[in-house]
Amino acid sequence: MRLSDCHNVDDFRLLAKQRLPWPVFDYIDGAADDELTKARNTAAYADCDLVPDVLAGVGAIDTSCTILGRKSALPLMLSPTALQRVFHWQGERAVARVAQRHGLWFGISSLATVSIEEIGAMGDNPKLFQFYYHKDRGLNRSMIERCQAAKFDAIALTVDTIVSGKRERCARSGFTSPPKFTVSSALSYALKPRWALDYVFREKFALPNLDTHVREGTGEPVSIAGYFNTMLDTHMDWNMAEQLRDDWGGKFALKGVMSVADARRAADMGINAIMVSNRGGRQLDGSRAPFDQIREIRDAVGDRIEIICDGGVRRGTHALKSVCAGATAASGGRLYLYALAAAGEAGVERAVTILKDEIERGMKLMGVRSVAELTPDRLRWR
Fold first, then answer.
1. Nearest Cα to Cα of residue 125 among 86, 84, 76
2. 20 to 30 A from 111, CA-CA: which of 68, 213, 360, 373?
C-alpha cells in the first residue's frame, strides 16, 4: 500500500499499521478497556442524517469560521497529541507546517516532542497548548510563561486525565516513552527497519516542555499510565482551573468536559471554550461520545461559551454534523496522526486536503454557502 492509495482516514490507518512496530501502532490506535467508547465516538455520527437543499447557488462558498477569536479556514482543529516524533521523525513540525499552509488551529501537548518555542515560531496560524496540571507548581508556571513568551493563542487545560485509563494494548506491549526495546517487542522493531533507523539515527528523543523540571523529559523510558498516575495532580478542582486561567490571561479552554453541569459551570466562570472530549476513548470506557452530548450542552449554555466537538472525526461530513448539532467546530487527533505515522508531512498534507475537500463538497451538496448556515434544521436524528 502506498500514500497515493489513501483516500480516507481508515486508509491512512492501514498504511500506518504496515509501517510502524506493533507497540507504537497500538499506542496510537488503542483505547481503554474494551475500547467501546472509541468505537462509539465515530459510530455516533451515523445516528443522524444531513438534509440537503438544492438550487442554492453554491458556486462560491465560505468554509471559514472563528474559533477562540482567530479565523480558521475550516470548522476543524488539529487536536494536540503526545509523542509525535515516536510515530514519525518529523513529528509536530510536520503537522505545524500543514496547519500553517491550510490556516488551521494546531495544538501541541505538554508531552510534545518539539518545544513550545519552536512551534510558536512556525507561522502565524492559531496555536493551542494542551496543559496538564502537574504536582510540580514550578513546572506549571514554566509552561505558562513559555506559552506567553511564544505567543500561543490559547491554553486548554486537560481535565479528564488525573489518572490514566486502563490501556490494555500498551500493557501487553510494554510501550513506554521513549520506546524501550524488550524481548517481546524486539522482533516487531526489527521487522520495521525504516522506522528503527529513523528512531536510532535521527534527532534524539526528548520531551522539551518538561525537561527543565522532571526526569521524564530527559529521555528516560516511562509508561504513559505511570506518568499520569505519578506526575499529575489528582486534587485539581474548579478553583485551581480558575487560577490557571487568570495566570495565563488569554483565551482559555477546558478539554475533557462531557456533562451539562460542567459545561454550565464553565460558562458561568467565563471560560472561553470547552472541548467536549473523552480523549479518544482512552480514559473512561463506556462513557458517551462527544457528538452525543453536543445538542444538550448547547441547549444548556446557549451562546455563552464555544463548544469544540473533539473525537471520532473521520470524515468532513462529521465536522459538518458537529456544527449543525451546535458545535463551533470539530477537532481530532487520530484523523491526522495515522497519516503522520504513515508518511510524515506528506501524509498529513494529504489527509487534511482530503478532509478539506470533503467539507467543501459536503457543503455544496447540502446547499450551504457558509458555516453559519450549518444549523440544527439541517439534521434529522434517527
1. 76
2. 68
pTM of the predicted model as reported, rounded to 2 decimal places: 0.94
Which of 114, 57, 43 is closest to 80 using CA atoms? 114
Q: What crossing angle do the helices spanning 22-29 and 334-366 adopt, rounded to 10°?
A: 50
| CATH number of the domain within which 371 lies | 3.20.20.70
pLDDT value at 345 more than 80: yes
Q: What is the three-class DSSP state of 172?
A: helix
Which amino acid is it at 122?
M
> The domain containing residue 253 runs over which residues?
3-381
- Mind listing the pLDDT tens digit for each residue in 300-336? 999 999 999 999 999 999 999 999 999 999 999 999 9
Confidence of residue 215 (pLDDT cuts 50, 70, 90): low
Question: Could you give the number of structural domains in the chain?
Answer: 1
User: What does the alpha-carbon distance between residue 70 and residue 80 come to, in Å, rounded to a whole number?
Assistant: 17
Q: Give the separation between CA 31 and CA 52, rounded to whole angstroms.
A: 35
d(CA 151, CA 167): 35
Q: Is the pLDDT of residue 61 over 70?
A: yes
